[in-house]
Specification:
This protein has about 400 residues and is mainly α. The protein is built from 19 helices and seven strands.
Length: about 400
């Protein structure tokens, strides 16, 4: 991190601590305080020291309100694969990944050599998780996990276990409790490890005795590479290939395991870019995330290793494709069956800007059409008599501009 970045981080941590202290004093929750008191002996029995526990919970007298709010706002709508990839493999994401590959060339090469995971994939995970460190979350992890253990309707044992792991990280001196910043659900640092994943897979790249995924980019990238390696990453093997299918092959073979690339070739399957398959003996599974009308892929072992980070095909496609783009590859050959003329990233930002001016949108201007943007589009479309489909289309942008 640069001196300026570290200074900004310290200011953020100080301000967050001050806000938490003020808010906690003003809105103490007796139920939460009682839960913390009851959880303390549980944590101490699990090996957390009294000093570490008391330091971590100092000033936390009420649940994290934003965590509780976000608990009830998950899965607001289901994205299509192309909507997911528009945000996850945007022009900005590709450019940032390429820039980081140049800026951190020595560190990335060292991580690749030590763990046997290609640097582009590690950078793609970093970009996918936190936009290369720009969005590591704005929650104190101890506070968020305690809130979930106290208030979540399910999986209380899971959240308590993660909280104990987080407390042990503090006890070990790897990070101060007020600096343990992450998501509302407790995922932490540059590459968003849960405390249990940190415990098993975090790596000390620089040998300072700490596994600091919050302020050390090198530790974070090494930790991600170690995670992928320990889950079976195959060095020198791709995540998958875009392919062209003979008629009838997709319907008959999609999703079937145990078929080698050579056997796919014998069925008439070829790579969409015209290149040869480099490893005919590899086993591959046919995936058609948009059905017959969209691109088709043969995915390999590494696709499923990426899914160990986030158990979603969309996520694995995004990380795999972003890693290819960081490495200089082009976009997919076949277009997605959107049913509308899509916008590029700059145009999607323009949509958000106009929606903001018109009072329909209050989120970040980032070109990522998430749930907030989509709901704003739906509201605008309804207000002007357009079919409310939520699509960020050329027609939508023209209507917003009054054309």
């Amino acid at each position: 991190m640069t001196t300026r970045t570290i200074f900004a981080w310290l200011i953020f941590v100080f301000l967050q601590s001050a806000v938490l202290a003020f808010a906690g004093a003003a809105h103490a929750d007796p139920g939460f305080a009682k839960w913390v008191s009851g959880f303390r002996p549980v944590a101490l029995k699990a090996g957390v020291s009294a000093a570490a526990f008391d330091r971590a919970f100092a000033g936390l007298v009420s649940p994290d309100g934003l965590t509780i709010e976000k608990m009830g706002k998950q899965a607001e709508f289901t994205k299509k694969v192309w909507e997911y990839l528009d945000s996850a493999v945007s022009e900005t994401q590709i450019r940032d990944g390429m820039n980081m590959r140049k800026k951190l060339a020595a560190q990335v090469a060292n991580v690749e050599s030590r763990f046997g995971v290609d640097g582009e994939t590690v950078l793609a995970v970093w970009g996918s998780e936190t936009r290369s460190g720009a969005r590591m979350g704005d929650h104190n992890v101890i506070h968020a996990l305690a809130t979930l253990a106290y208030a979540a309707p399910r999986r209380n044992d899971f959240w308590q276990s993660e909280l104990i792991n987080a407390l042990k990280i503090v006890q070990g001196g790897h990070i101060a409790p007020q600096s343990m910043i992450g998501s509302w659900a407790g995922a932490m640092g540059h590459t968003q490890f849960m405390p249990s994943s940190w415990k098993q897979y975090a790596a000390d790249y620089n040998g300072d005795g700490k596994r600091d995924i919050w302020t050390s980019v090198e530790d974070a990238l090494a930790s991600t590479a170690n995670y992928l390696a320990k889950h079976g990453w195959r060095k020198g093997e791709a995540w998958g290939y875009e392919v062209v299918l003979p008629k009838g092959v997709g319907a008959k073979y999609a999703g079937k395991d145990g078929i080698s690339v050579a056997e796919w070739q014998a069925l008439g399957v070829v790579r969409a870019n015209g290149a040869k398959f480099p490893r005919p003996a590899d086993k591959a599974v046919l995936k058609m995330p948009a059905g017959n009308a969209g691109p088709a892929f043969l995915v390999l072992k590494n696709f499923y290793v990426i899914k160990r980070y986030n158990n979603s095909d969309f996520y694995a496609f995004a990380v795999g494709h972003l890693s290819d783009r960081i490495g200089g590859a082009g976009d997919f050959v076949k277009s997605w069956p959107r049913g509308y003329d899509p916008l590029n990233e700059a145009e999607r930002k323009e949509v958000q800007q106009i929606l903001t001016r018109k009072g329909f949108y209050s989120g970040e201007i980032d070109g990522a059409i998430g749930s907030g943007s989509k709901q704003s589009i739906l509201a605008f479309q309804s207000s002007v008599g357009m079919t409310p489909d939520g699509f960020p289309s050329k027609a939508l942008l023209a209507k917003l501009k009054g054309k």
